[in-house]
Write the structure tokens for this entry.
Amino acid sequence: MEENENTVVDPLAGQMLPDEGLFGPGTPADAAAAARSERVGWRHNFRVFCRHKPAVAGLVYVVLLVLASFLGPAVFDLDYEKGDASETLIPFSAEHPFGTDQQGRDLLVRNLYAARNAIVVAVVSVLVGLLLGALIGAFAGYLGGALDLLTMRLVDIMFAFPQILLLILLLVAIPDSMDRRISMFVAIGLTSWAGYARLIRGQVMQARNEDYVEAARCLGASNSHILRKYILPNIAGPIIVAVSFGIPSAMMAESGMSLIGLGLRPPMPSWGNLIYEGAREMLGFPHLVLWPSITFGLTLLAFTFIGDGLGGVYGKDR
Amino acid sequence: MRVLKFLLKRLGSIVVSIACVVAITFAMMRVVPSDYFTQLELRYGANTAGKQMLDLQRQEYREIFHLDDPLWKQVGRYFVRVMKWDFGPSYKEPGEAHKITELVNAKLPVTLTVACAGMGIALVFGIPLGIFAALRRNSWIDYTLTSVSMVGQVVPPYVLAVLLTLFFAVFVRNFQIGDSFPLEWLALPSEGWGSWKNVVMPALALGAAPTAAVARYIRSSVLETLEQDFVRTAVSKGLGRLQVIVRHALRPSLIPVVTVMGPQLSYMIVGSVLVEDIFRLQGLGSLFVNAVNERDVPLVITSTFILAATVMLINLAVDILYSVIDPRIELK
């Protein structure tokens, strides 16, 4: 593993960035080769990712958590709402490793459901934000002009508005009748698009002016072909990194909102409302708040480590 | 002259941004599906007579608070009030004309004190830790500091708040440090804002992320500065290691720290929204959350305004500080 660092074994991997050719800017053929090597490059990328040990640990943790929280309750027929009134506030037992709460509900199960909610909300709302941001940013960057100016002013306003405050106001404005998870998708998506829009706009503008794009255009490639084959593969890296850091921050947004009573509502467990409810009985029954805090903290760390690893792969630090 | 121009330009853009923020808030509070009175009804329940009362009151409020005016008029009127530092009455006490101003004057200092204490912790601990990690680069101390700072940066303040409190309350008490351990330090059981001791725990919880950020930035910028020519010159003149660091390497290394100070202070001020409730602090954050939950529109708008304006003014102050530390940087 170690000696691979200096001598690249895979002949196609990692060295084919078209604008780094030996004789100046690459030709469209180089770019096409790069696009092909992109597929082979996954193996190389994975090796680079694996060199970052915390990232691997994070990935393993996340995979286990996803398996446990999505399959566990289904396989073992666990219920987060049903409690056993004879077994309230047990700190620890063989049957309830995380203990039980005031209503005798198993906290391990509730934590698993909280993890599931957090992951679903984070992933979907990041995708919503990314989609919005990508559309707006790509149009602004590709078309430029007045549209670009206007959208960037909008982005500036979004950045001026403290994100938590906007999130709170949005969540209040969304009708209560809607499933709280869906309103979280909408609210977090609407508050996080600006960062993606700015990133993608910059990347698209940069890629648009590259010589290989120019060359491809001269050869008669259509806009959509250029966007798919030349621009997208070249801007995918930074976007993947941004998304991987977007997930933990969306998780924080979700649990923060649930903490102050605007996110998921009990009995639906979320790390935020578990921590809030546990904190009230913190000094008497520390286990109520300890486990959600630890699992939530570990999950955030794991996702951040994965982001760091991906940042290493795509040559971009935070 | 140039400084004056810079200030005017920045203040101008701050005013525009604030106007946007206030307008957005006004607009959002218009489309909120359940208003102040439905919240009252939800909380206390109401029979038919009570509902009629509430409806009457709702009509009355439309006039008192000019709810039927167009948006631009509401925002304009609000800004005229802001000029006089008078935010008018809240929904809860429509009779008291200066209620919100009093609330803001009482609660802004709480939030600012906690944020400044957090920043103080970040500077006092973060700078030495960062220098230390840079000097012992790639040793186990460096790795430990780096990973601990990772935890501080990633884990949100309310989780840290809970864990810190648990640690002090449960563990410290159990390990006989004691029964004498002053519980008021936890800020938890005490009734809100009493002595400076109430600040310690919230400041620690909120200050963890800034401490980590400062340590990280100092570490990398000290590493960078130590390779500069002027540091080599200082070393070859025969200056001691400490003197080289403090006299020559530290000042240029401080510049990136100033750049993180702005976002970190904003983070702590806005983060008060999430943390103050756990510590039972009566600051701007809890004021905002309560106002939102009660749909007390004037209070929501003013607390949003104060939080946003504070954040923007802090960023301006940091930009000015930036050019004081490094005169080569021009104010733009």
About this structure: The interface with chain B takes residues 156-157, 160-166, 168-170, 172-176, 248, 252, 255-256, 259-262, 275, 278-279, 282-283, 286, 289-290, 293, 296-297, 300-301, 304 of chain A (CB under 8 Å). The CA atoms of residues 30 and 283 of chain A lie 65 Å apart.
